[in-house]
Specification:
347 residues; 2 domains; Nucleoside Triphosphate Pyrophosphohydrolase; single chain
């Protein structure tokens, strides 16, 4: 006789955390390494892949879009990426800042590649006075989730405790904004007719995917929003740099490519996700947020006709069928699932 047991979310979270601490196998997530430009950051993640005991729940990001978000998981991974630093262990029921916890003593850590003062990083607190919850001299320090608290001049992660204070590998105090362009087209035959999946009978979408150099996984091209830059421009820039290798071509070729894709990227697009990202780099005082937007080449005569060429951050780039069986980096498969549902395509 099969017995079924029902576990509430609190117990599930405790089991996941216990498995992580004990080093027992579960599902290991891959860190999001889109912080740009920082070769030391990428190297740190390459070196930490086998050491990160991070538990990833497949539909975590999808659940975040609801009014009640579960406790972040990857943001409490042990050890902190690119180091042997152990976070202060935070159980699910103590993640929320509203829970009084006098014993909480997070480890303070900011990576050397951040403290060296690259252009993409803030100075240390005390040497400057950032204006949190506002646009500060071109740097967007607002959160998609509303105003966050600032305690002793440091912003607090809106999703709660992570077991580590400081900035870790992130450049900005508070939110670090990224953008993910999801460029799609229909899969067609030699006559230009849409191809349907033999099982679902729904038309098949394809999307531009890059193979990351840092972890070898296929992913959506994306990157960080530069100070004063509109997200729409970030999406177009990152796609051009990572999928079309625009930085290595001539000015004339770059101008032609820009003209070709501007129409697509200037369209409203479909907003797939906007908000907090449960990322292993997150700390109590610095965290990732992203905007993922789908730009669809319905007729197949804009981006579809451009030659794809991998940029510096990518090992390979190609069109890949949107399908639930294809493994993708981090939570990108959930973005594609949302796109497929919106476009009434196969998943």
């Amino acid at each position: 006789m099969i017995r079924r047991f029902s576990l509430n979310q609190n117990w599930i979270g405790r089991i996941r955390l216990a498995l992580t601490i004990l080093g027992l196998p579960y599902t290991v997530c891959k860190p999001d390494t889109r912080l740009r430009p920082s070769s030391c950051t990428a190297l740190a993640f390459i070196n930490s892949q086998s050491a990160t005991g991070c538990v990833y729940k497949p539909n975590t990001l999808r659940m975040m879009s609801t009014s009640v978000a579960p406790p972040h998981v990857k943001s409490r991974c042990q050890p902190y990426p690119g180091s042997q630093i152990q976070r202060f262990s935070v159980p699910d029921d103590k993640v929320d800042w509203s829970q009084v916890w006098a014993q909480y003593s997070p480890v303070n850590h900011t990576d050397a590649c951040v403290t060296k003062g690259p252009t993409w990083a803030d100075p240390d607190i005390g040497t400057f006075a950032p204006r949190f919850n506002s646009v500060d001299g071109g740097v967007d320090r607002t959160s998609f989730h509303g105003d966050y608290k600032v305690v002793q001049a440091r912003p607090l992660n809106p999703r709660g405790r992570t077991g580590l204070a400081g900035r870790g590998l992130l450049g900005r105090w508070g939110p670090n904004h990224a953008a993910d362009p999801i460029v799609t087209r229909w899969k067609v035959d030699a006559k230009g007719q849409k191809l349907s999946h033999p099982v679902s009978k729904l038309p098949v979408l394809q999307f531009v995917s890059i193979k990351r150099k840092d972890c070898g996984e296929w992913a959506i091209p994306g990157g960080m929003v530069d100070p004063g830059e509109l997200v729409s421009l970030t999406l177009q820039r990152e796609f051009s740099e990572e999928a079309l290798n625009s930085l290595s071509v001539t000015a004339e070729e770059r101008a032609k490519t820009h003209e070709r894709i501007s129409k697509l990227f200037n369209s409203p697009g479909f907003e797939v996700y906007k908000g907090y990202v449960d990322d292993p780099r997150n700390t109590d005082n610095a965290w990732m947020e992203t905007v993922a937007i789908n730009f669809h080449d319905e007729t197949g005569n804009s981006v579809s006709e451009l030659p794809l060429q991998a940029g510096d951050d990518a090992g390979q780039v190609t069109w890949i069928d949107v399908d639930s069986s294809f493994p993708l980096y981090a939570s990108h498969s959930h973005f594609l699932q949302t796109v497929a549902k919106e476009r009434h395509a196969h998943w």
